Model the fold of this input.
Amino acid sequence: MLTGAMTAEDTHDTPEQATFRAEVRAFLAAHAEPKGEASLWAVNFHTDPADAAREFAAGRAWQRTLFENDLAGLTYPKELGGRGGQPWHETIYREEAVHYAVSSGFIASTIAMLGPTLMKWGTDEQRATLVPRLLSGEDAWCQLFSEPGAGSDLAGLACRAVRDGDELVVTGQKVWNSAAQWCTKGMLLVRTNPDLPKHHGITFLLLDMASPGVEVRPLVQPTGAQHFNEVFLSEVRVPIANALGAIDEGWAVARTVLSNESAFIGGGGRGSVNDRLVALARLHGRDADPVIRQHLATTYEREQILSYMGERIMAAVRRREVPPMDPSILKLYVAENAVRNGNLAMSIAGASAVAAPAHDEVARWAQAELLGRFGISIGGGTNEVQRNNLAERALGLPKESRKDHEIPWREIPRS
Done:
C-alpha cells in the first residue's frame, strides 16, 4: 500500500476516484508517518493529564493540516471550507489514512455531531462563520447537555437561562462533559421557559468556554483517565445571537446532535476487540475451551454486524440523508458489546487480570475492558434512553404512561 503497489480498492476506482486516491496518498506521504509496530495490548486512554492534553492538541493540529490541504469536510460545500465532494471521497481517505499514525482524535467526533446540525438548523450567517472554524479545528467543541439531575431524562434539565436584553444569563451545572477542559466552545442546553412542558422551553446555545463564570473540573474515572468533566456556570452571559434554532425549541436541535453522536459512536470503530480476546484466550490456554470459543464466536459476529450497520448509517449521514435505521441501535449495540467484551476478558484471564503487577500490559488491557464498559453505557445516552428511543421511534410502541411531558416543567415533582 505505502510503496505504490496495486490494491483491491484501486481496481474498483473510477478515473476520478483514482485521481483522488493518488492525491490522498501523496498528501499522507508528505505529512504523516506510517504506522509502526504497536502493542496488541495498548489502551486508548491516558492517565497522565499532560499526555492527554498533548494528544488532544495533536488531533486538533492534524485537523488544521487537513483543512489547509482541502481534505477536511470532504462532503461540505466549498463556500463553507469543505471540498464539495461525494461520500466516496471520505471512504477513500479513510482507506488510505488507516495506514498512518495520524488522527483528528476527539475533534472528529464533534465535527460529526455539530457539523450536520449547523447545516440543518443554523442561519446562513452561523453556517458561514462556524462551519469553516469547525472543519479547521480552530474551534474545538464539547457537549454540555447532561446534568446531575438530568441524565437519562435529559429533557428534565434545570440549567437556567434568563433573558437580559440581547443576552441570556446562564446559571447551572453540567456533568460528564468529554474533553471540556481543552475545548474552546460548548454546545449548551438551557432552560429558558420553565412554564412550558419539559421538551419545550429548552434553548440550544453556542457557548464560548472562555466566558466569565465558566469553571471546568476534571473527573477521575476508574481507569485513572480524566476525560470527563463537570462544568459550573455562574451567571454566564451568552448573546441571543448564539442560539441555534428557535428560542424555547432547542430540543429538536439537541436530538439532531444526539442522533449524530449515536451514529458516530457506532461507526467510529476502535479496532477489533475480538482479535485481542482470541489472543488472550491463546495466551492463557483457553482457546480450546468450548464455552470460551462460543463466546469468541459471538463476539466476532456482533463486531461484524456492528460494522455493517455503522457503515450504512454513516454513509447516509455523509449524504445528509435520513439513516436507514435508528442510530440508537448502534449506540446500544456498542454498549452491550463492551459489557460482553469486559466480562469475557475477565473470564479468560481470571485472577491474573486482577492480581498482576502494574506493569503487566495484558492485565491492564483486560482491566480497561472491564472498567470501560461503564462509561460507554452512559456517554451519548444511557442504554435505557436508547431502548426508549428504539421502542417509540423505530417500533412505534406507545410512550411510557406518564404525564410529566404534558405539564409545565416547574410543576414536575423532583426529589
In short: The beta strands are 141-144, 160-164, 167-175, 185-191, 202-208, 214-218, 229-239. The longest helix spans residues 290-318.
